[in-house]
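Re: [ENG-882] Designed sequences occasionally contain unexpected residues at chain ends

Forwarding the minimal case from QA. Structure tokens:
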């Protein structure tokens, strides 16, 4: 992990995912928040680089080929994960079947990974709460995986919640949802999102004392930027 990686990850941990989403939207990236994927443990904040794997529809003749053993794609992906990484699982938006549960995700905890994101379900949520990793999924479920989907491959571009995720992209997730930040844009997005948050704070402070519509300053305009400029000049 480079110093720049560390700085980006730390900034993403501190920024609301919504701030990054707003910046990306302004850059023309309008399909970067996953649909149908949410925090299953309220109050979580998770950020990391994506390690990807994908499932395919189950079929009896394939089950013996792809299920079980360390060579299975899900396990190989987990072994790539470490501190600063998030496992992103493409479950074909099939949220009724479980992508993983307590035994599998215990390995992510052992590896020091930041968490798991899947557009499938997860099992054993009561146990997962104690692991200290982020859990973002379509739902909690008791339905097992092999009858419905099979692990196929890993570390390739996948979809998750209808959003493209490439290995190494940044993922930032909180109670508001899961946002994918393309790796090559991450430093720029962080810088603009930090400015976005500073503008928001300055406008809120102004509205506490000025009896006007928020529309005077929001969406952020030259008047809002002037407020922030004056605050910074005054050392605020």
């Amino acid at each position: 992990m480079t110093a720049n990686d560390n700085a980006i990850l730390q900034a993403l941990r501190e920024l609301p995912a919504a701030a990054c989403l707003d910046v990306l939207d302004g850059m023309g990236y309008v399909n970067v928040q996953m649909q149908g994927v949410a925090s299953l443990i309220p109050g979580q904040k998770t950020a990391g680089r994506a390690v990807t794997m994908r499932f395919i529809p189950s079929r009896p003749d394939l089950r013996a080929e792809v299920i079980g053993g360390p060579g299975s794609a899900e396990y190989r992906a987990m072994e790539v994960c470490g501190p600063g990484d998030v496992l992103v699982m493409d479950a074909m938006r099939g949220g009724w079947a479980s992508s993983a549960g307590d035994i599998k995700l215990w390995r992510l905890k052992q590896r020091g990974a930041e968490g798991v994101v899947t557009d499938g379900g997860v099992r054993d949520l009561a146990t997962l709460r104690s692991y200290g990793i982020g859990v973002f999924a379509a739902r909690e479920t008791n339905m097992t995986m092999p009858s419905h989907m099979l692990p196929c491959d890993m570390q390739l571009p996948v979809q998750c919640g209808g959003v493209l995720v490439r290995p190494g992209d940044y993922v930032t997730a909180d109670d508001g949802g899961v946002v994918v930040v393309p790796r090559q844009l991450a430093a720029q997005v962080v810088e603009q999102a930090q400015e976005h948050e500073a503008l928001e704070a300055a406008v809120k402070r102004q509205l506490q004392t000025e009896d006007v519509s928020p529309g005077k300053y929001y969406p952020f305009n030259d008047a809002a930027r002037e407020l922030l400029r004056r605050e910074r000049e005054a050392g605020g």
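QA comment: On inspection the terminal residues look reasonable. The radius of gyration is 20 Å. Proposing we downgrade this to a documentation issue.
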